[in-house]
Amino acid sequence: MKKAEPPTQIALVCEIVARDAMTATAVAQIAKVCAQDVRQPLVVKSRAQAGVSVTVLTLHLPAALAAGQTPAWCLACRLACFCPDARVSVLVLAAPEFDERRQRQKVPRKRARVAA
Q1: How many CA atoms lie within 13 A of 64 on its CB side?
Q2: pTM above 0.70?
Q3: Where does residue 2 rank: exposed (0-12), middle (13-18), buried (19+ CB within 10 A)?
């Protein structure tokens, strides 16, 4: 009998900005291992940028996953622990949900007549 496969998780994006390519590559490898540990699919985008004093990791998290997606939050915590000199952020991407809600709530407004 074939086992049921777990539901596919949405891959998060981890954006890394570091002062040099070697640091960016090392932090990207740490991010990939941490993501595997918590079973969270991850797409890593790293780049070196001159003048950066602190390595910055930003996890881009869709709003639909923000409330109940424990692996994403575990990943952020693990990254902060394994990269203590880096700044780790979670960016919740909620704009599409707000735009959709706003479109549903639009109701034509009646203008009051002003007596002259």
Answers
A1: 6
A2: yes
A3: exposed
